[in-house]
Amino acid sequence: MAELQPIETALEALLADVGPLEAEQVDLEHAPGRVLAEDVLATLDVPPFDNSAMDGYALRAVDAGKRLPVSQRIAAGSPAAPLEAGTCARIFTGGEIPPGADCVVMQERVTLEGDTAMLPADIPQGDNVRLMGRDVGKGERLLAAGQRLEAAALGHLAGQGITRVSVRRRPRVALLSTGDEIIEPGTPLKPGQLYNSNRPMLKRLLENFGAEVVRVISVPDNADQTRALLEQAANEADVVVSTGGVSVGEEDHVKAALEALGQLDMWKLAIRPGKPLALGRLPRADGRQARFVGLPGNPVSGFVGAWLFLRPLMSALLACPALAALPALSASADFATSTGPRQHYMRVALEFTPTGITASAFADQNSAVLSSCIEAHALAVIPPNHTVEKGDTLRCLWLTG
After folding, report:
1. Dihedral (Cα; 294, 295, 298, 300), 10-degree rounding
2. What one-character-per-residue DSSP string does 250-281 give?
3. Into which EC class is this enzyme placed (predicted)?
4. Rounded to an integer, what distance in angstroms lies between the CA atom of residue 223 and that of residue 221?
C-alpha cells in the first residue's frame, strides 16, 4: 500500500518546473481579473496639478484673518489665473489651485459680504490642498507585474489614460467528470445516478482563480475511453482536472490511464478530506506537458482540493503571488475534536468580536456534505494525531480569491 504523503510534498510535486504562461495584450475593458505581465510606469502625475479638496476659498495663508475681495471663480475642469495679491478665489472641489495661493478654507467658515469674504485666522499653509503627484509621480511604478487587476487597479490604469495592458494568458483548463453514475442537471435521474455538482462548482472556482475552462468532458467507466479522453484534453489545455476515478475501485480508470499516457507524480495524501488525489503530467502533441490534477469525486473533497491545489497552480502559471497561499489567521475554537493520522481541513464559520476571532465548525464534516461549504469562511487546519479543546487557538485558511 502506498504511503500517504503530506500536503507539502504534494505541493512541491505539483509546482515543480511550472513557469508563467506567455503575455498577451488586451484592452482595459477586458482586463478585469487578469494578471499584469510587466510593470506599468506612470506617465502622468496624479493628481496632475494642485487642486482643492473641498468647496471653499483659495488664498495665501499670510492673508488668513482678513477680509479679502473675491477676484475669480474656479470650477473643476477650468483653468485658474494667478491669484491677485490681497485677494482670494472662490474654488470648488477638484478645482486648480491658482498660482500664488497656498491653502483653501472651507466655505462653511467664511462670511460673505457682497464681493468680499471674511476669512478665519487659523488657516495653515497647505490646508485642504491636494498636491500634484500626491498619489503617484510621473515615472514611478504605477503597478507591479503579478498584480491582479481588480477595481482600484483598473481605476489607477484608467487615471493614466491607459487603454491596453500586457497580461498573462489565462491558463486553459479541461474539466473532466468521471463515472457512469454522474449525469448533468436537466436529465431525469435513474436509480443509482447522481447529478454533477462538481462541474459548476469547480468551473466557478477555477474562473475565480484566473483560469479559463475551455472544455468540459464526461468520462464513462471505460479504460480505453478514459485514456482517449485524457489524451484529447491534454492537447487542448494547460491543465487537466478530473473528478473521481483516482481511487482503487475496479471502475476507477483515471490513475491507470495517467500512468499509461504520462507520469504520476503523487497519489494518496495524508489529508482529510481528499486522500485519493492524483497529481501528474500528460504529454501533448506540441511536445509540451499538461499538468494533471485528479480530485476525489466527493464534492467537499473537490472543493477543498481546489483551494489547496488548483489555486496555487494558477498562481504559478499566472506569476501572481496573491494566489500562492491562502491568507492565514488565528481563531479560538468553539468546538472540540481530534484527528487520526491525516491532517484535517475542517469547514468553519468565523465570528469577529472585540476580543478576537472565534471559529465554529459545521457539525457534519463528511466529504459528501456540500452544504457545509456554502457558509464556510475558512478551513481550520488540524494537524495529524492532534486533540483540540474548546478555546484552543487554531490556524485557519481564509477562503478568498
Report:
1. -170
2. TT--HHHHHHHHSEEEEE-BSEES--S-EEEE
3. transferase
4. 7
- Which distant-in-sequence residues (6+ apart) come within 8 Å of 46 by Cβ? 133, 134, 135, 136, 159, 160
Q: How far apart are CA 215 and CA 313, in angstroms?
A: 18
384 and 270 in one domain?
Answer: no
Number of domains in the chain: 4
**Domain encompassing residue 13:** 7-21+170-323
**What's the one-letter identity of residue 361?**
A
pLDDT band for position 364 (50/70/90)?
very high
- Rounded to 10 degrees, the C-alpha dihedral 251/255/256/259 comes to 170
Cα end-to-end span (Å), the chain: 37
Residue 182 domain-assigned? Answer: yes
C-alpha triplet 249, 198, 268: angle, nearest 5°: 40
The CATH number of the domain holding residue 65 is 2.170.190.11
pTM of the model: 0.90
d(CA 225, CA 227): 5
Mean of the per-residue pLDDT values of the chain: 95
Q: What is the DSSP string of 64-109?
A: TTSEEEEEEEE-TTS--PPPPTT-EEEE-TTPBPPTT--EEEEGGG
Q: Give the DSSP letter of residue 285.
A: T
Tell me how far apart the alpha carbons of residues 378 and 372 are, in angstroms, rounded to a whole number.
11
Distance CA 94, CA 117 (A): 21
Q: What is the pLDDT of residues 194-232, one digit of tens each?
A: 999 999 999 999 999 999 999 999 999 999 999 999 999
**How far apart are alpha carbons 268 and 316 in whole angstroms?**
23
Same domain, 17 and 64: no
**Long-range contacts of the stretch 78-87 (C-beta < 8 A, 24+):** 83/58, 83/59, 87/59
C-alpha 60/C-alpha 97 separation (Å) is 11
Site of grid cell 492673508: 63
Distance CA 281, CA 291 (A): 5
